[in-house]
Amino acid sequence: MEIFLIVLLCVVIICPFGLAWYFWSRLRRHRRFMETAQITHGEVIALSSVETNNGYMVAPIMQYTVNRKAYEAKPDLLLQPKKVAVGQTLQIRYDPNNPEKIAVMPNGRDTTAQVYRIYAICMLLGGIAVLLTQYYIFFVD
């Protein structure tokens, strides 16, 4: 029974911190991408919808030109359906070494970084809350 509690405690504590580290590393990787990425504009030619717990989100399939060559790509980050429509022109950033790797910039803002930052902070705070709860249960009670 004690081993089960120790394993459970380790999993409950490690998971939030592991997720926080994962999202923080994704944020760092995205920032490195943004430092070298070039800006262009692309047209939304289709929307790929994905069902989530809170309804559905869309991934815009973008068509854009880099050095007179046309590309079609889909960003990693999903958007709310009301923020994007077929035929809309959006600012995108692309990797000059791999123009098919893009980040969509709705309203000219980097929403991907905001999402990763929020997820990382939530997981970190969740981990701290679990630690404080476990401390209270084992040492104060």
Descriptors:
2 helices, five-stranded antiparallel β-sheet, single chain, elongated
Structure in a nutshell:
This protein has 141 residues and is an alpha+beta fold.
How is the topology of this model organized?
Blueprint: H1 2-36, E1 38-52, E2 55-66, E3 69-73, E4 89-95, E5 98-105, H2 111-140
Antiparallel strand pairs: 1-2, 1-4, 2-3, 4-5
Q: Could you describe the 3D structure shown?
A:
With 141 residues, the protein is an alpha+beta fold. The protein has one domain. The chain is 46% helix and 33% strand. The protein contains two helices and five strands. The protein has a five-stranded antiparallel sheet, with helices on one face. A hairpin with a 2-residue loop joins strand 1 and strand 2. It is elongated, with a radius of gyration of 20 Å.
